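On clarity, I found the account of how folds are encoded harder to follow than it need be. Since the whole study asks how a given chain folds, the encoding of that fold should be made plain. For the editor and my fellow referees, an illustration may be useful. An entry of this sort, consisting of the sequence and the corresponding backbone structure tokens, reads as follows:

:::
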Amino acid sequence: MSAETRPSRPHLSELRLSAFAAHRRVRLPLGPCTLLVGPSGSGKTSALRAYEALARLGGGGEVGEVFADPAACVPDRARPDAQRRRGFRIGCTADGPEGPVRLDVAVQAEPELRIVGERLTAGGVVLLETALRDPSRRFVQAAWHTAGSAPVTRAPLPDDRLGTALLPLRVAGKTDGQRRVLAAAEQMVVALRSVFACDPRPDRMRVPVPTGSGRLLGGCDNLADVLWRTHAECVRRYAQFVASVGAGCTGPVAGVHAELLGDGTVRAVLDRGDGGRTALGRLGDGELRYLALALVLFTGPGVLEVDPAGEVPAAMQTLTVLADGFDRRLDPRQRDELLRLAARMCDRGHIRLLGTVTDASWAARTEGVTVVHLDA
């Protein structure tokens, strides 16, 4: 791929589940709008969990916080070795200005949770490699590409965090090799950051909520508070959002508003355009999930409860939405309209979607959608 044709916004183009939960040697290609398809038990949710885990590690998260139940990530029927160790392996590829950059991570789940191996590669060159040399010590031995007077630099790194995320603090960037390492690591970290795992819960969206930060939670419980904050921020985007809501909800929709109640809480309502309003509490589950997911697709990281890379210009960042059960409780009209909206928004480059469905025969005809089948 030439420099002229490389995408400018770093993003993940592949997720690898080398040995994770029910998956072994699985490679999942990722387009701007991707649906993972498979029956119950095929590992769709665990694939999203692996993606989110990599994102949190890329953001500097500690391994114990990222993997609250590490035993659940160990491959099925995996047996411990002579030292009673078991673990799992995941990885990804990030495309961007530096070309494809690969990251592969090995995690020991038992007897102690720790990152025991990591490899960052680009253009066939190993830019960072770590390995656990002494299990009695809480660090791994790392070697990164230098290409100066010494071909590599060796130093210990903690075994509870991703080395790639720590490289900007450890590499001086004085040689061409060091600058290459930094550029590849930064591309990977930027591609992994700004992930929003979203699974709207209609039962919690029906009740008024206190005003707060105005940042949307993953369950969309506080949707009314977000509407209270954002309805006047961008007139054009708001008009597009209202039009999309009207396409997925029964009856006319002239607006989506938040009303401040006497007790200080807010509730969301649909403006029917004839002077009447319908509280969201009266909508069906499918309508509420559709509305919430549409809002997410129209909203940026500044409104979602995500961890954006604040040091990176917004023009270089991509928000990735993880939507487990993308079509759950949606009727055919709603799911078709929502997928068309997702494909249209993802085509702009600033947002990507990775969703799961049990059947995607209905999605095959939607332009701009990548369908990836998982075997049970």
Notes: The longest strand covers residues 11-20. Residues 85 and 347 are 44 Å apart (CA to CA). The chain is about 25% helix and 30% strand. The mean pLDDT is 90.
